[in-house]
Amino acid sequence: MGGGGNMNQMLKQVKKMQEQMLKAQEELATKTVEGTAGGGVVSVVVNGQKSVLSVTIKPEAVDPEDVEMLQDLVMTAVNDALTKAEELANQDMGKFTGGMNIPGLF
């Protein structure tokens, strides 16, 4: 017969953890990271939920004769920013998952 109390306690803990995880995910939307390329001539700002917020391209990065280089710089800066956003999310959410990578969680 005893054990129902343990189950209720466990359910309360799970609910509390879910609420904390939701709050952490919401906070990730307010945190930003910046990825750069070409020594900073291209920069991309991304939030912790991996949404691109801004792209900045300095005039010296624009060469009409070499559009491919600019495309590569933008791609590199975006990937750099996304990698940093992933690290930020893993750091913030890892405290709830114990370092386990749970697909679809964030």
Short description:
The protein has 106 residues and is of the alpha+beta class. The chain has helices at 4-28, 67-97, and strands spanning 32-37, 42-47, 52-57. It has 2 helices and 3 strands, in the order αβββα.
Could you describe the 3D structure shown?
By secondary structure, the chain is an alpha+beta fold. Helices cover 53% and strands 17% of the residues. The chain is built from 2 helices and 3 strands. The protein has helices at 4-28, 67-97; strands at residues 32-37, 42-47, 52-57. It has a 3-stranded antiparallel beta sheet. The relative contact order is 0.17.
SSE order: HEEEH
Bin the helical content: 40-55%
Count of strand segments: 3
Structural class: alpha+beta
**Percentage beta strand:** 15-25%
Keywords:
2 helices, 106 residues, alpha+beta, 53% helix
List the helices and strands and how they pair.
Elements: H1 4-28, E1 32-37, E2 42-47, E3 52-57, H2 67-97
Antiparallel strand pairs: 1-2, 2-3
Helix pairs in contact: 1-2
